[in-house]
Design goal:
Layout: H1 17-24, H2 29-55, E1 61-63, H3 81-84, E2 92-96, E3 111-118, E4 122-124, H4 133-136, H5 149-172, H6 174-193, H7 198-226, H8 229-238, H9 240-256, H10 260-268, H11 277-280, H12 285-290, H13 294-308, H14 314-317, H15 336-340, H16 345-348, H17 350-369, H18 377-405, H19 411-433, H20 442-457, H21 473-478, H22 504-507
Antiparallel strand pairs: 1-4, 2-3
Helix pairs in contact: 2-7, 2-9, 2-10, 5-6, 5-7, 5-19, 6-7, 6-10, 7-19, 8-18, 17-18, 17-20, 18-19
């Protein structure tokens, strides 16, 4: 029987990463280089996320009116439309008294305004987009339900990619996870642009979703694992900025590219440029050490030291002082560097306190807005913006927090599992929104309640501010074991006892 993988730290698989980061400079030139490359891994998926807003734009349409519309260049806003198309019912037209012939003219007296009939062709308003998936695949009227399916398929792809690519990155390395993600994102995007039918487009949309979420989460993990604790929070938040810029870039491209197939290529094909990561992006040192590839890890550390113009003490790269059975590093509640760099809320209140606060803020704002009468529009808008702020802040913080709780050997798959749960929410959300037909405030009450519950459950998690990232499952399981659930970093620091023979075992678990 194959033995289960041992999670006990081995002598040659341990390094004091935080001391090494301090020696390199926690955010030196080399770490900035890795972070810059990771930002492109955040930028590209964002373009694909929002492109369906333009690619699948639900342009206005109406029936083609035989005998009135020019077969070659029909005018969507022709004068006869008001007399031949029922107002607000673009899937029908008024029936003619007599069948249309080649000699039929557009005589409005020939139409019976009391009888409606289906139309065999559609005329689309191409003033904004020359073509979209809606116009090309006729996703209107009885086929209108197929349009939103593209969004759901993308979410299903994200669900599958979040867990599978995360697991792949933990097994075979962060760079392998990036490679697979780029091939899915770029390949699925380009193939969707040449899809001969809508069903192939949906299948390719699923692949791009898997690649997009995989690329974001793996590059995020890689960046976090390279950066010292002092700047980890800052970089974990700032990597969301390229994501927002990528979303904005899609809108810019849509101004100049009005044909959906070319726009699809424009937002996905550049992902192939990230294949250069295989040569210029270093592998995660933490992952290499967790896999026993210490020699490769040391080479990367030495290269980083050369780029940063510093020298790493030899004892940090050697394991002669490391005792078998326990890691050489200790988890501390805070470090001087961390204390100096706490101007932001996430550092002052801690991960747990900040995440709980913004989830409760967003949830309460959403819940309360459900009871505000419609005539108080300004109040509803204000609460909506507050709720948006809370949820957007929670999205940014939860990535940093998750990366710090999961151990290195399962960090990618851990974040992937969390992302998978988020995708389930994305798939269910449209159905929750449809509850407004039963009771208009119901969707707001459901979303708000879930956010409030999540904010309360966060209290059960440990605080991670100033702590080194856990390397193994045992370290992760004991992480925060000496904290009460009411411990927040803003409420005081836990006292550290001197490291002695008697307390060495517990010092490794101290936070």
């Amino acid at each position: 029987m194959e033995q289960a993988k041992s999670h006990e730290p081995e002598k040659n698989n341990t390094m004091d990463f935080e001391e090494i980061n301090e020696a390199l400079g926690p955010f030196g030139k080399y770490q900035k280089f890795v972070f810059f490359l990771s930002c492109w891994g955040s930028f590209m998926p964002a373009m694909v996320v929002v492109c369906m807003t333009f690619v699948g734009n639900n342009v206005d349409h109406r029936c083609f009116v035989p005998g009135c519309d020019d077969p070659n260049e029909p005018d969507f806003s022709a004068e006869f439309v008001n007399d031949t198309i029922p107002h607000g019912d673009e899937c029908f037209m008024y029936q003619r008294y007599e069948p249309v012939t080649n000699s039929s003219t557009c005589n409005l007296d020939d139409f019976n305004v009391n009888v409606k009939t289906n139309c065999s062709e559609k005329v689309f308003d191409t003033s904004l987009f020359t073509s979209t998936t809606v116009t090309e695949f006729d996703l209107t009227c009885e086929n209108a339900w197929l349009g939103p399916l593209a969004g759901s398929m993308y979410m299903v792809g994200m669900l599958l990619g979040a867990i599978t690519i995360g697991d792949l990155a933990d097994r075979f390395g962060r760079k392998m996870g990036i490679l697979v993600s780029v091939m899915l994102l770029g390949g699925g995007g380009v193939l969707s642009a040449v899809s001969p039918n809508y069903y192939m487009f949906l299948a390719m949309r699923l692949l791009t979703g898997a690649g997009g979420v995989g690329l974001f989460q793996v590059t995020f993990v890689l960046a976090v694992e390279f950066i010292g604790a002092k700047y980890r929070t800052f970089c974990g938040i700032m990597i969301e900025v390229p994501f927002a810029l990528g979303e904005a870039m899609t809108g810019v491209l849509a101004i100049f590219i009005r044909e959906w197939r070319w726009l699809q290529v424009a937002v996905t094909a550049p992902a192939f440029l990230l294949l250069s990561y295989m040569w210029i992006m270093p592998e995660s040192v933490r992952w290499l050490v967790s896999q026993g590839k210490r020699d490769v890890a040391v080479k990367i550390i030495k290269k980083a030291a050369d780029v940063n113009g510093v020298e790493v003490p030899k004892h940090l790269l050697e394991d002669s002082n490391t005792e078998v059975g326990r890691p050489s590093h200790v988890l501390v509640s805070s470090s001087p560097d961390t204390e100096v760099s706490r101007p932001s809320g996430i550092k002052r209140m801690g991960r747990k306190g900040t995440l709980s606060f913004v989830l409760l803020l967003g949830g309460v704002a959403c819940f309360v807005s459900g009871f505000i009468p419609e005539e108080f529009g300004a109040v509803i808008v204000t609460l909506s913006l507050v709720g948006k702020f809370g949820i957007a802040a929670a999205f940014a913080i939860v990535y940093v927090y998750s990366a710090e709780i999961f151990p290195t050997e399962y960090r990618s798959v851990g974040i992937g599992a969390c992302s998978m749960c988020a995708r389930i929410g994305g798939i269910v959300a449209p159905f929750v929104a449809s509850l407004a037909h039963t009771y208009k405030p119901l969707p707001l009450l459901v979303f708000g309640s879930l956010s409030i519950v999540a904010g309360l459950l966060v209290v059960l998690l440990p605080e991670t501010v100033g702590c080194e990232l856990p390397q193994t499952i045992p370290e992760s399981e004991s992480f925060g074991s000496d904290q009460s659930i009411w411990y927040f970093s803003c409420c005081g620091k836990k006292r550290r006892e001197p490291v002695t023979e008697e307390n060495t075992a517990t010092e490794d678990q101290r936070v």
